[in-house]
Amino acid sequence: MIETIDTAHGEFELIKNHRNAFVLDDFNKRYTDVFDIYPYLVGDYSAGLLRLKGFTKDNGANNYKFIPDYLSESCPMNCAYFILKNPHCNPKKKREE
């Protein structure tokens, strides 16, 4: 079941919450507007720290279909992780420099 999450950065849909990984306070602290361009976000805890990675719908290396590969290759075995869908993502948004 998909759950809608209200954060300081807008609404997200919680698709997967493995080992109850989603902690709102940690997410709010780690999220930056750089992630606004991604329709999918994966958060995982490595060495006690939350890491966020964005995934797109295009055919590039960060395609959301590669999320299982990312989890198995880049995350500690059986780590706590979550997958969010950003229904308000803007892939054309320019990053401020």
Output mean pLDDT: 91
What portion of the residues fall into strands of 2 or more residues?
25-35%
Strand order of the largest sheet: 1-2-5-3-4
Any guess at the CATH architecture?
3-Layer(bba) Sandwich
- Round the Cα radius of gyration to an integer and report it: 13 Å
Report the biggest beta sheet as strand number plus sense, adding barrel if it closes.
Answer: 5 strands, antiparallel
Q: CATH H level: which superfamily? A: Uncharacterised protein DUF1027
Separation, N- and C-terminal Cα atoms: 38 Å
Total number of strands:
5
The number of helices is: 2
Helix content: 10-25%
What is the fold-level CATH name, i.e. the topology? Hepatocyte Growth Factor
Structural class given helices, strands, pairing? alpha+beta
Please mark out the parts with pLDDT under 50 across 5 or more consecutive residues, or reply none. Answer: none
The number of domains is 1
- Broad CATH class: Alpha Beta
State the shape.
globular
Order of SSEs: EEHEEHE
Folded structure, characterized:
It is a single chain. The chain is an alpha+beta fold. It has one domain (3-85): Uncharacterised protein DUF1027 (Hepatocyte Growth Factor). Helices cover 15% and strands 34% of the residues. It is built from 2 helices and 5 strands, in the order ββαββαβ. It has helices at 24-30, 67-74; strands spanning 3-7, 10-18, 40-46, 49-55, 81-85. Strands 1-2-5-3-4 form a 5-stranded antiparallel sheet, covered by helices on one side. Strand 3 (40-46) and strand 4 form a beta hairpin.
